[in-house]
Amino acid sequence: MLTVVGNLKGGTGKSTVAFNLAVWLAHDKTGVMAFDLDPQCTLVDVCDVRQEDGFEPIVEVSTDLAELEAMASDSKRKKPVIVDMSASNMPAMERALFLADRILIPVQPSQADIWSTQRFLKIVANSINQEKKPEVLGFINRADTHIGVRETAEAEQALQMLQGIKAMDIRLYQRTAYRRSFSEGLGVFELDPMGKASKEMKKLATLLD
User: In the chain, N or C terminus with fewer CB closer than 10 Å?
Assistant: First the structure.
């Protein structure tokens, strides 16, 4: 399975989600291969921190689009692939979308993010391989933890109404644990296995399994 994590808008938590999913998969016996096609190379940086601090399993990460294309065409490939990308490198983004088996779209709970996601879905529709048509999934990321804030539920309803995407029954909330674990090169479920953030990420990973 080749999963692309992306959105048109910055700040949606793409790299955090991609890293946590990659670490989750790395614990499996088949392992994982990660690709960072974002010029900022945040996924590369966090995987470097993980390796330098001696955390295992190591997450292999590449920035080579040609290597991704080779893996996508390898019918004997067993390792799942996670791709982090951004609109900063549009040709690489469009190519990754074409190669994808699944496209995962984190969406922040704001009207601006819904509009951005609509535009991204148009790019997706024009970029994907029409013969295999990957699954396109979206979920609310960085949801507000305060129950009185209405934007999260409103954004979730708007996401469910968008064409070309399936809204997942999962929310990841704005929690310090995601920032802290990321800065230490750990999956959030490794840093605090019983925490709320850990349970959220485990649910997302399980839904994608």
Answer: C
